[in-house]
Amino acid sequence: MSDRNIFKKCPKCGTEWHSRDDFLADPTLELNGYQADFRKLEHGLFLFTHKYLNCFTTMAIRAKDFLDLYKGRRYHENRALTADCPRYCIDERQLGRCEAFCECAFVREVIQIVIQRQKSGKGIRDET
């Protein structure tokens, strides 16, 4: 199968996920970080660790591959590092929701959606 039919391939063990749904439904993957890009949110990176046998490699996937999961309200002003910012986006291991009225807050909601899909063992299309 050609690489263009692969959503992501583990660089260490070679496991292939052919779709985002397959990737999110895999119980051997754990979202464990987010590196923000404050200039272009879609260039931020979600960090997943492949906890399979002796692999344990961490892979980065651009946030843009997941941003369409959130259909809620989005703010248009970047409030990162202002007085009302909890600074979650500068701590790559902080995956909690952000209550700030900031354009970056919706990425935190995407993180929650990804975590829920992983906990349920379902991909995106499996949700009813």
Q: For the CA atoms, what is the radius of gyration?
A: 15 Å
| Proportion in helices | 10-25%
In this structure, how is the largest beta sheet organized? 3 strands, antiparallel
Give the number of helices.
2
What are the secondary-structure elements, in order, as H or E? EEHEEEH
Instruction: Report the portion of residues in β strands.
Output: 15-25%
Number of strands: 5
In terms of structural class, how would the helical and strand content be classed?
alpha+beta
Number of domains: 1
Distance between the termini: 30 Å
Describe the structure.
- By secondary structure, the protein is of the alpha+beta class.
- It has one domain.
- The chain contains 2 helices and 5 strands; from the N terminus they run E-E-H-E-E-E-H.
- The strands form 2 sheets. Strands 3-4-5 form a 3-stranded antiparallel beta sheet. The chain has a two-stranded antiparallel sheet with strand order 1-2.
- Strand 4 and strand 5 form a beta hairpin.
- It is elongated, with a radius of gyration of 15 Å.
